[in-house]
Specification:
Helix content is 14%, strand content 59%. The chain is mainly β. The protein has a 6-stranded antiparallel barrel with strand order 2-3-6-7-5-4. Strand 4 and strand 5 form a beta hairpin.
């Protein structure tokens, strides 16, 4: 009987030390900052260039590839130099600090002030070049008609649009 007690004690003692060693080697991936109900206004020379609204924001600034996450979605209004607006909504977003790329996911919808609408499941926004792109399926609605396709890139004001595979009916100006 005394051998069984010693063996049990030794086993429990080793198990406890093993779990402590595992904890030491475990690196937690936690946000360096969190915010609820945010309303950010971005400006350039006193002019508002964008307004970002989100119910939740998490910042991961202390990781090797820093990013900001919006797990409950975003609602963004972009303004051009003349005050023309473009509206962006998505269920989830991640903004990467080093690349200035924003990854929009889930029910992504972009609407221009002129009534053009792009809908897709994932879309990237290059903030530096003010350029959107995706390789996913999309639906583009314009006052001239509706088109569907796979893969598109365009300027934030919809003035330049390049699509890869597209089908639909558009009204001709002829």
């Amino acid at each position: 009987m005394p051998v069984l007690v010693v063996a049990t004690t030794l086993f429990v003692g080793c198990e406890s030390n093993f779990k402590e060693v595992q904890k030491i080697n475990f690196s937690e991936f936690v946000p360096s900052g969190e915010a609820d109900k945010i309303n950010l206004k971005y400006t350039d020379s006193g002019r508002i260039t964008a307004i970002l609204v989100s119910p939740k924001m998490r910042e991961f600034a202390s990781v090797d590839f820093p990013f900001t996450e919006f797990p409950k979605g975003i609602d963004v209004t972009l303004y051009d130099a003349k005050g023309k607006r473009t509206f962006i909504k998505s269920d989830y977003a991640t903004s990467y600090k080093f690349t200035n790329i924003i990854d929009l996911k889930g029910n992504v919808k972009i609407t221009s002030q002129d009534g053009q609408i792009l809908e897709t499941e994932q879309l990237y926004f290059d903030q530096k070049n003010e350029w959107f792109f995706t390789e996913k399926d999309f639906k583009f609605t314009d006052p001239k008609g509706v088109s569907n396709g796979h893969g598109i890139d365009f300027s934030k004001d919809f003035k330049v649009i390049n699509s890869q595979r597209i089908a639909g009916e558009l009204e001709s100006s002829d």
